């Protein structure tokens, strides 16, 4: 299976399984998405989706968020873990959005990554999901799949992102990263992995053996 065949096999299989993948994190605008993605660090999307309604009921915009104390934010988000760091980030980035951007979420990687507690992956999710800018956010699921599909060596998420962007067409990035996440969770988990149920990985390995 050459690169072109592998690309076609992966993208066509994912398109059949997940033709319209939903956004995993519940949100209503760029600000609530930014906060939800920040909260999802080392936490499941399902848990985040349980907590954000409680937080957003009190503050779903930066102006209301800064009316809360950092301690109040921390108490609400405690179940998602890393609450001291995350509450600090939410409180201070909300101030910055008001002071520097008129309360709006900036539409650039550089500006987003300069915000407290916002890394490259968070910025990539916001840019792709909220603003439609091509990006390829790599989480643990995508990192795992790129290694299993022999697209990247799995050394770092930075390398995985570079390799994914080289392998997949830019026009597919925003939808594809969601499709891979859903596929990884359902067919190729980190634990109790059954390769016979992993359609894509087993197909790639079978094609390799036939060479």
TrEMBL record:
<keyword id="KW-0456">Lyase</keyword>
<keyword id="KW-0227">DNA damage</keyword>
<keyword id="KW-0255">Endonuclease</keyword>
<keyword id="KW-0234">DNA repair</keyword>
<protein>
    <recommendedName>
        <fullName>Endonuclease III</fullName>
        <ecNumber>4.2.99.18</ecNumber>
    </recommendedName>
</protein>
<keyword id="KW-0004">4Fe-4S</keyword>
<keyword id="KW-0411">Iron-sulfur</keyword>
<dbReference type="InterPro" id="IPR003265">
    <property type="entry name" value="HhH-GPD_domain"/>
</dbReference>
<dbReference type="Pfam" id="PF00730">
    <property type="entry name" value="HhH-GPD"/>
</dbReference>
<comment type="similarity">
    <text>Belongs to the Nth/MutY family.</text>
</comment>
<keyword id="KW-0479">Metal-binding</keyword>
<keyword id="KW-0540">Nuclease</keyword>
<keyword id="KW-0326">Glycosidase</keyword>
<keyword id="KW-0408">Iron</keyword>
<keyword id="KW-0238">DNA-binding</keyword>
<comment type="function">
    <text>DNA repair enzyme that has both DNA N-glycosylase activity and AP-lyase activity. The DNA N-glycosylase activity releases various damaged pyrimidines from DNA by cleaving the N-glycosidic bond, leaving an AP (apurinic/apyrimidinic) site. The AP-lyase activity cleaves the phosphodiester bond 3' to the AP site by a beta-elimination, leaving a 3'-terminal unsaturated sugar and a product with a terminal 5'-phosphate.</text>
</comment>
<dbReference type="InterPro" id="IPR011257">
    <property type="entry name" value="DNA_glycosylase"/>
</dbReference>
<keyword id="KW-0378">Hydrolase</keyword>
<dbReference type="GO" id="GO:0140078">
    <property type="term" value="F:class I DNA-(apurinic or apyrimidinic site) endonuclease activity"/>
</dbReference>
<dbReference type="InterPro" id="IPR005759">
    <property type="entry name" value="Nth"/>
</dbReference>
<dbReference type="InterPro" id="IPR023170">
    <property type="entry name" value="HhH_base_excis_C"/>
</dbReference>
<feature type="domain" description="HhH-GPD">
    <location>
        <begin position="39"/>
        <end position="186"/>
    </location>
</feature>
């Amino acid at each position: 299976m050459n690169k072109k065949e592998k690309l076609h096999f992966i993208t066509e299989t994912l398109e059949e399984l997940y033709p319209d993948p939903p956004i995993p994190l519940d949100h209503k605008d760029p600000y609530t998405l930014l906060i939800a993605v920040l909260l999802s660090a080392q936490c499941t999307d399902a848990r985040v989706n349980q907590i954000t309604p409680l937080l957003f009921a009190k503050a779903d915009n930066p102006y209301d968020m800064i009316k809360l104390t950092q301690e109040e934010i921390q108490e609400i988000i405690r179940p998602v873990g890393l609450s001291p760091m995350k509450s600090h980030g939410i409180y201070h980035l909300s101030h910055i959005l008001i002071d520097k951007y008129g309360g709006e979420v900036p539409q650039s990687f550089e500006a987003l990554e300069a915000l407290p507690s916002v890394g490259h992956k968070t910025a990539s999710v916001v840019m792709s999901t909220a603003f439609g800018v091509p990006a390829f956010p790599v989480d643990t699921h995508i990192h795992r799949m790129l290694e299993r599909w022999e697209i990247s060596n799995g050394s770092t998420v930075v390398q995985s992102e570079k390799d994914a962007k080289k392998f997949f067409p830019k026009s597919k990035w925003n939808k594809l990263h969601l499709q891979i996440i859903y596929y990884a969770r359902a067919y190729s988990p980190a634990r109790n992995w059954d390769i016979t149920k992993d359609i894509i990985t087993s197909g790639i390995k079978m094609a390799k053996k036939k060479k």
